[in-house]
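Hi,

Apologies if this is the wrong queue. I'm a grad student, and the batch job for EF-hand domain-containing protein from Megalops atlanticus produced an output file that my downstream script rejects. I'm not sure whether the problem is my script or the file. Here is the sequence I used:
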Amino acid sequence: MESAIQTVVGVFLKSAKGKENLGEKDFQNLVKSQLHNIMTDTDSKEAVKEMRKGLDENHDGKVSFEEYMTLVGYLANSLSQQRCVSEETPAEAETEEAT
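Support response: The file is valid. Your script probably expects a header line. Output copied below for reference.
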């Protein structure tokens, strides 16, 4: 767990290049280089731009560490849900659908 947290922080700091926030290009590069295996449309500048806008709670045009953590939390939750669904047996899935 410690290693994962250090990696999340390290990726942000490296991508921000010593700044407190990720600018548009920095965020685009982070998403494209680090998240292409778990997200779709990481090559689409427009899709990543829309994602950045959605994360940008204070509307400053940048992604702060806190805003970045919103993305990390969303992705972790999505992966967890996918794995839970894929681990269900077909009988369990059918029972849940029937209720």
